[in-house]
Amino acid sequence: MANVTRIALIGNPNAGKSSLFNTLTGLNQKTGNFPGVTMDKLTGIWELEPGRNIEILDLPGIYSIYPKSIDEELVINILGNPNHADYPDMAIVVADASNLKRNLLLFSQVRDLGIPTVLALNMIDIAENQGFVINSLKLARELNVEVAEINAKKGIGVGGLKLAVIKTLKHRYASNDALPLPVADDLIEDVQKQFGEADPYRSLLWLMEHDRMKMFNQEQRESFDHLMEKHQFESKKYKSAETVKRYEQISEVVERCVINLNRQWDAEPVKTWTDRLDKVFIHSIWGYVIFLAILFIMFQAVFTWATYPMDLIDGGVAQLNDWLKGILPDSPLTGMLTDGLIAGVGGVLIFVPQIAFLFFFISMLEETGYMSRVMFIMDKMMRRFGLNGKSVVPLISGIACAVPAIMSTRSIGSRKDRLITILVTPLMSCSARLPIYTVLIALVVPEKNTLFGVFNLQGVALFGLYLLGFFMALLSAWVLKKILRAKERSYFIMELPTYKGPRFKHVAISIYNSVRAFIFEAGKIIVAISIVLWVFASYGPGDSMAKIEEQVRLKNPSLRGVDLSNKVASEKLENSYAGHFGKLIEPAIKPLGYDWKIGIALITSFAAREVFVGTMSTIYSLGGEVDNENATIKNRMRAEINPDTGKPMYDAALGFSLLIFYAFAMQCMSTLATTYRETKSWKYPLIQFGYMTTLAYLSAFLVYQILS
Predict the structure, then answer these.
(1) 578 φ, ψ to 5°?
(2) Cα angle: 695, vertex 697, 701; to 5 degrees
(3) Is the pLDDT of residue 186 over 80?
(4) Alpha-carbon distance 352 to 356, whole Å?
C-alpha cells in the first residue's frame, strides 16, 4: 500500500463520518490496529477514478485537536507527525451542516496543520428542514478549500466529493499560514530549529501537546518545557483564547454564507421530528420504559426468528455426520473428521443466525440515532452507582463484544472511572455467551410455554440474563467505587444526532463484518479446540483404551447393538486423557451440580466462552448416540442421564446453575489480554478474573442448591 494515496476521514462524533466511510468503501474494508496502539483502525479502498484506488482511513471522532482522552490523542499523534505510518496525504473533514459553526472549529484546525483538506457538508437536508440554507460555493471561497454537499447515509453527492478530492490532490491547496492568535516569532523559530521545519500551527501543536505526542522522547519533552519557560508561554491560556478567536472568525463566515430563514421571517425555530420524538424517547420515565420494551422485543425476536435456520443447520450437520460415518471406513481419521472437525464447524455455524439477528438490531438502533438516546437517559442511573456518564458507551457496546467495549473506555477522562468501567464491562452479556444461553435455555425452559399467552418464555429468559448482567455490572461498579475511593467528578457531554431512517446497505455491512469476525476469529478457536479435544478424548494413557470394549462385554454380557456401542463409547471417553483431566477437577465443581464432562467444557471455554458448545458437541459425539439417528447437540444433552439419580442430567437446577455461571464468569482470554493492554499491568486482569470467577462460582452454587 506504499504507493497508494491515503485520505483520512475526520469529524465530530455523530457527524456522519462512519456512514461516509461505509458508502465510499462498501465491503472493501479491513480492521487492524494502529501502529503501536491496541485500538481498532478501519481502512478501506475507494475507487476514486477508473484504475485509481484510494486508501480511506476512518479516524475516531473528535471535537478539537487538543485531546482530552486517549482516542483523541491517537488522532493528533497521526495528524501532528508527518512521519507516522498512517499520516494522510489529504483529509476529508465531515461536518454536520445542521450545526455548522461548531463543526468548523475542527475543520479550521486541521486545515491550519498544513494538510490538504476537503470540507464535506453532510446532512444538508436536515439543515434545510431546520430553516438553514448554506451557500456552499461562497463558503468554499471564504475558507479557500473545496466544499462538497453530501448525504452520507443515502450516498448522495459522492460524485461531487470525488471531483473535490481529485482537484485538491492535484493542486494541494496551501493551508492558512497565519496563526489564529499571534505568538512571538522567535518562539516558533526556536521550535523549528530544534525539532524540524513545519507549518507554524503544527510547530505550535508540538509545543502545546508534546507530552501527549509519542514522536518525542523524554529529552525532547524537557526541551519543550524549557522553551515554554524561556518564552513565558502558557499553553492552557493560549488554547482557550485560540478557541474563542476561531469561533469569532467562524461566526463571521457562517453569517455571510448561511441564510437563517427562521430569523429572516421572524419565525419560531422549526420544530423537527427529532424534537417531537425526543419528548418521548428521553423522557424521565417513558424513556426507560421504551428502552426496556425495545430490548425485550429484540431478544424475543433473536430467539424466535433464529430458531428455524438454527434447527436446519443443526440437523444438517448431524445428517452430514451420519452420512459420512455410513460411507467412510471406521478409522481414527473418520472419527477426527466427523466427531472432531465437523462437530466443531457445526458448533460455529449453528449460531450464525442469532449473531446476525443480534447485530441487525444493534445496527438498526445505531443507524436511526436511538442508541445515543439510550446513553443519554442511562447517564443519570450510571452516576448513582459511581460510574462516569461515558461508561454507558462501553457497557452498551459490551452486548456485542467486551474487547472493543473495553477499548472504548479511552474516552473517559477520569482514570479511576475508566478503570472501574474496564473491570465491570465483561459482566455485560456479549454475543459470545449467546450460543451457551441458547442451548441451555432450550434444555430447561419449555419451548411452547408463553408469558401472557404472547411472549415466548425462552425469549423472556434470554432477556432476563442480559438484564442480570447489566445490574450486576452496576452493583460491582458501586462496590469497586467504594474500594478505590474514587471521588472525582466527571461530566458526560454528548451531542444527540437527529433521527434518521436506516440505510440497509450499512446495516448489511455491519452484519456481514460481525458474522465474518465470529466465523473466522472465534470459529478458528472453536474448530482448533474441537480437534485437539477429539484427540485427548479419543486416546488415553497406556493401553487402557484398547481393553475397554473387552471389559465392557465381560461386565455387561447382556448388552447388544446400540446399547453396547454407547456403553463402550462412554467408557472410552471416561478413561481418555480428557476424561482423566475432567475427573481431576470434578470435586471442585461437584457442589455446582457439574460432572467431569462439563468440567472439560469449562476449562476449554477459557479460550473463548462460545467454545463451551463446541466442546459439549464433541464430547457427546464421542460419548455415544441417542435413539434418533440424526442426533443434534441439544438432543444429545437432553438424553444425558445423571448416573447418581438416574434422571435427566440437564434439569432446571443444573441448567440455571450453568446459565448463571456463564453470565458472570470471566471465560475469555481475549478480554483479559485487552484489559492488560489498556491498564498496562497484569494486576487488573488478575483482579478481574478473580472477582468474576468467585462471583460466578458462588452464584451458581446458590442457584443449584436452591433449585435442587
Answers:
(1) -60, -40
(2) 115
(3) yes
(4) 6
